[in-house]
């Protein structure tokens, strides 16, 4: 199971004075943080799918998190084709949709995670229950139509979550973006 301590690295803000250093002393936390990221990546790669989905929701439900360690843990990226390939055997298709439209702390246009799409290798019958449980503590509305269910979350970086028995898609409110200096 993933603990809150495992997730702390996703909220670490690199101090501004270290973000533009080419020569000289960098952030003294770099080595420790890299080890924490590798540890989290290993956990996210190997936890059961239900725990991965639950963790992704918990990671973003109260505060925008740095999505890069999550992306690194479960995605192989082909730079030539720009294709994202899942490292996990239970995920058929995955797409972290990063978009420009936010400013970093230096006023430069940068990317944020707009949405995350996951298609499972097989049907996932209890996905609604997993989403409901992960959203505990938040006010949300649940609407179902045909085989699609949409959860709309109040006062959260997560705008909505759309699920079917074979897909999961999480949409982020870009106004919740935090520049972690990565």
Summarize the structure.
This protein has helices at 4-7, 16-19, 30-46, 49-61, 68-74, 127-134, and strands spanning 75-78, 83-86, 91-103, 109-120, 140-145, 148-153, 158-163, 167-172. By secondary structure, the protein is of the alpha+beta class. Strand 3 (91-103) and strand 4 (109-120) form a beta hairpin.
Structure description:
The structure is a single chain. The protein has six helices and eight strands. A six-stranded antiparallel sheet has the order 3-4-8-7-6-5, with helices on one face. Strands 1-2 form a two-stranded antiparallel ribbon. The chain has one domain. It is of the alpha+beta class and 182 residues long. Strand 3 (91-103) and strand 4 form a beta hairpin. 29% of the residues lie in helices and 31% in strands.
Read across the widest sheet, the strand sequence of neighbours is: 3-4-8-7-6-5
* H-E string: HHHHHEEEEHEEEE
- Percent in helix: 25-40%
Question: How many distinct helices?
Answer: 6
What is the quaternary state of this protein?
single chain
What Rg, in angstroms, do the CA atoms define? 17 Å
Number of strands: 8
Q: What is the rounded distance between the termini?
A: 26 Å
Morphology: globular
| Biggest beta-sheet profile | 6 strands, antiparallel
Strand residue percentage? 25-35%
Mean pLDDT: 94
Number of domains: 1
